[in-house]
Structure formats: structure tokens, C-alpha cells
Amino acid sequence: MAKESGAESPVFPLCRVVLDEGLCTGEVPGGNAEVPNWKKLLDADGKTAVREAERAIVARSSLADQDYVSNVLQLFAHWALDLPASENHHHARPYGLFRHSAEVASATVQDLQERWSPGRGCILPPAEQALWLKVAFALGLLHDCGKILDLDVRGSLPGPCWDPFGESLAAWKSRHGKDALAPTSYQFRPGRGLTGHEQKGIRLLEVILAGPRWNRLRPPLAAAYRAFVLRHQGPDPRAAVPLAYLAERVHQADILSARRDRRKARHREQEDLVPEKNPSGRL
Fold it and tell me: In this structure, which CATH number among 3.30.60, 1.10.357, 1.10.3210, 3.40.1010 belongs to the domain 38-271?
């Protein structure tokens, strides 16, 4: 924990956190739902990006936190499964939400790893850098979790729609006798905005991160998430270091991920327009 100092800026106070070992430890329980390993939800590029982010975090972590990345990814997999990230904007296809979220989380950690490398002038001591890399990964992973609340998931199943505040999507499917990776039937709710999901995501954080194993992660993550939501209002000079900074890094990673996906979508559309060559070579 950073020491009190007369040189510390009163305008940009350091965020006070408890730097206990074991930010989240042990295996994440699956409950009553059979949830596939999170790796099954990612493509090859996503797995590579996660491995690079994991190396950066593990290099700075205690032994108690060696499984942190896998644990938090597996937890979010319970809720995201094959849901899309948007209807028409980016990652608008099955698994889009989880893949986009993992990409943003991984890119944010790699960005910070570079910015916080020796000689770059980071004001945070190494112990706090280690913790905030973990928080940054979780913030990037859950930054769009509120988009889950923009969907009505029912399909042909009887009873009310899935309630994300009551249970994970995997648990809901399990109760209805459906495989976790079976296609999820959903409808987008009318009246949703481009950024309204971010505010709603604050309420969902505590549900996704329920249980004592996440007690140490919830407070700093919730503070960072609020900074992320409030970034639209402009820089807040009262924000504790490094909350607003982490929010901006996640925001930039989010923009780049969306742009890359739209470029890929345009490329796929262009390929579909190219006429197939005559395999016989004849007219």
C-alpha cells in the first residue's frame, strides 16, 4: 500500500486498497450447471491474447493468484455463453459478447504492461501495479456485462424469461434441461441506448461476483467500473489514482476491438461478393 506522503497530490489521491494475497483463489464452482471451459467459447486469436495477458499478470502475482485469469473468465462464461455483443454494431453473432470482452480485457492488460514497464515513469509501486492489472482485466472483461440486460432470453421454453439477477444463463439452461452450448434464443429489448447498458452493469457486477471468494476484488473493481461509466462526463480531477486512468485504457481497448471486428465483417462481406471461380476452367 502506498505510504502517506506530504508530496502526494490532494487533487489526485491514490486509491487506497488492501493488498492481501489471493485476490481470488481456488476453482470457481459450477453450481448445478455443466459449464464448458471458457476456452471453448474463444477462437484461436482470443486464446492467444488471453495467454499473453495471463503471462503479464502471473509474472507479478503471488502463488495464491496464479489461476486468477482462468477463474474470472470461467465465472463470466456462466453468464455470457453464446450471447452477442450487439444487434448490428460489432460482434453481433454467437459468442460475440464473451469474445469481445475477453479481447478488451487482454488488450488492456497488455497495454498497461507496456506503459508500466521499467523506465516509463509509473507512479504506482510494483505491488499496486500487480493488483491493478488484475482489476483492469476484470474491468475489461465485465465492461459490457450490462448488455445482458438488453436481452430477453426465453425461446420456446415455458415460464418467464431468464433473470440474470437470479441465476446465470448456464444455470437457467440447466434447469430447463438444455445444454450450455445449445443455441440461445433471445430478443433485443426495445428502447435500449448505446451507453445505457454501462450504468445497468453496475448492478449486475455484485451478482456475477457473488460469494466470499470475490470479496477482495469487488471493492476496487466496483470503483473502477464507476469511473468507467462516468468517463462520458469528462475527466474528474477528484477521481482517485488510477481509477480514471484504467477506465480510459479499457475504453480505448473497447474502441479498437469494435473497429477490428467491423473491419473483419466488411472483409467477409467483400469475400462473399467475389464470384466463385469456375472449377473446370471452361466458359
Answer: 1.10.3210
> pLDDT tens, 158-170?
678 999 999 999 9
pLDDT in tens, 123-159: 888 778 888 999 999 999 999 999 999 999 986 666 7
User: Whole-prediction pTM value?
Assistant: 0.84
Cα 55-61-67 angle, rounded to 5 deg: 70
Whether the CB-CB separation of 36 and 181 falls below 8 Å is answered with yes
Residue extents of the structural domains in the chain: 38-271
Please name the amino acid found at residue 210. A
Q: E strands within the chain?
A: 151-153, 186-188
CB atoms within 10 A of CB 181: 17
- Answer whether residue 273 shows pLDDT above 80: no
Please give the Cα distance from 203 to 178 (Å, whole number). 27
